[in-house]
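Entry 14. Ran structure prediction on the chain below.
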Amino acid sequence: MPDDPRTCHESVERLPGALAQHIRVGIGGWNFEPWRTTFYPEGLAHTKELAYASRQMTAIEVNSTYYGSQKPATFAKWRDEVPDDFVFSLKATRYATNRRVLGEAGESIERFVTSGIAELGKKLGPIVWQFAPTKQFDAEDFEAFLALLPKKIDAHHLRHALEVRHESFAVPEFVKLARKYKAAIVLTDSEKFPMVPDLTGDFVYARLMRSESERKTGYAAKALEQWADRAQTWAKGAAPDDLPRVEEKAPAAGKSRDVFVYFINGAKERAPAAARALLERIG
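Output, structure tokens:
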């Protein structure tokens, strides 16, 4: 078997056209044992999994950065293993978000942002700040947290996505606050967590968690078509009319937005197939 992951399997063709350039689709991580039989070619070395996965989709969300810091050399290694147009989203450290007083997270935020993520260069995508399901919305404390998020590191512009998991965040006050700080609210497609699809930043970040093991592509064909249509609508700068909003009125359509769609959890073994199926529909 060839060692070059680019020759192991025919890659998904890069999305054509100006609109498609704004849409990225991927999975969470690249090390998952069941993918050895459902996604990766037989016999592919573990060290080549990132190189292979990054040529089958257009983005990956890194979860390991949530649990512990990585060295600058590690970020540089990831950067060099993927194509030029590939992007990593990073889950920010849990030490910043899993705390009683968010406004006191400054040191943890600073430590994460300066840990070496700038080594990713132009391949650095949004940073996801994930909050515990028990964390309730406190407008004053949450604004104090948002004020701590840096706009850039070195010469790199930073984009922040907020994944909230408590129903108390599904209120207009939270949407307005996120928009004030130009942070995107993560659209979570899950039975467990609230969905807040309101547009608040200059990009859209969706985490899809309803994949089913009995479906080869995780999601039914109709659902994949719906998500493809939504992604294209977001990329045009508009809001899909088939998703319930917290605010009564959707903001007027504006400039095109970058869109990030990740298949996360659910039947995780189906995530790569779901991502590829969505890419095909968008392309």
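The longest strand covers residues 124-130. Will compare against last week's run tomorrow.
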